[in-house]
Design goal:
Strands 1-2-3 form a 3-stranded antiparallel beta sheet. Helix content is 65%, strand content 9%. The chain has a single domain, classed as Rhomboid-like (Rhomboid-like fold). It has 232 residues and is mainly alpha-helical. The longest helix is centred in the middle third of the chain and has 22 residues. Strand 2 and strand 3 form a beta hairpin.
């Protein structure tokens, strides 16, 4: 399922969300200018490598990849799919939290997502990059704040493509269940992940963090805002 847009317009321009998207694009353009050897070195240095974190040197070199890995991507499709999801869901979360709270929320979502990945694959020497763990936190926050919003979704069914509106609570609930299922499978077949794959537990960790924290940091209107979009 591919989300196309949601049904809730933001009431103010999402400065932080837009800046995050632009920064990710600029970093990727810089990546694209590097030689293959330079890019590989940058990914190993600034990507999140669990084995380096747990068994490498201490200091800044240990902790920095928890933040820098969130702004690196492995290809154009990786970047576009992440930024499009952030574009659809992030503006509304920023609208409710405010600019500064949203920035802190996003960064900590990425940090917790990275931590979940480190715990799940403590011995992996495979670099992990991408904003999807931080974006998963945004999705978790969106589910809490806008459970009754509608997500216009492209759904491929065999050779046919349908565009339908799906309640956010169903769309994001299904998304999380699929991440959890794949994450459990990946743990059971850890050797598969060592050859490359999706950091499912980063998604799970980020999403759960978003679910748990967004109400705690949101100004009081967030506690009743979801009721404005009940479909009944």
């Amino acid at each position: 399922m591919i989300p196309l847009r949601d049904s809730i317009p933001a009431r103010r321009f999402p400065i932080v969300n837009t800046a995050i998207i632009v920064l990710n694009v600029l970093v990727f353009v810089f990546e694209d200018l590097l030689s293959p050897q330079q890019l590989q070195h940058a990914i190993e240095l600034y990507g999140l490598v669990p084995a380096h974190f747990w068994h490498g040197d201490g200091g800044l070199a240990r902790w920095l990849p928890l933040f820098t890995s969130v702004f690196l991507h492995g290809g154009w499709w990786h970047l576009i799919s992440n930024m499009f999801a952030l574009y659809i869901f992030g503006d509304n979360v920023e609208d409710r939290l405010g600019h500064i709270r949203y920035l802190v929320f996003y960064l900590f979502s990425g940090l917790i997502a990275g931590g979940a990945h480190l715990l799940a694959y403590s011995g992996s020497a495979l670099p992990t990059v991408g904003a999807s763990g931080a974006i998963a936190g945004v999705l978790g926050g969106y589910l809490v704040l806008f459970p009754y919003a509608r997500v216009l979704t492209l759904v491929p069914i065999f050779y046919f493509i349908r565009i339908v509106e799906i309640p956010a609570i169903i769309y994001l609930g299904f998304w999380f269940i699929s991440q959890l299922f794949n994450g459990l499978f990946a743990l059971a077949a850890a050797d598969v992940f060592q050859g490359g794959g999706v950091a499912w537990w980063a998604h799970i960790g980020g999403f759960v963090f978003g679910l748990a924290v967004v109400r705690l940091i949101c100004p009081p209107p967030c506690r009743t805002y979801a009721d404005e979009y009940r479909p009944w």
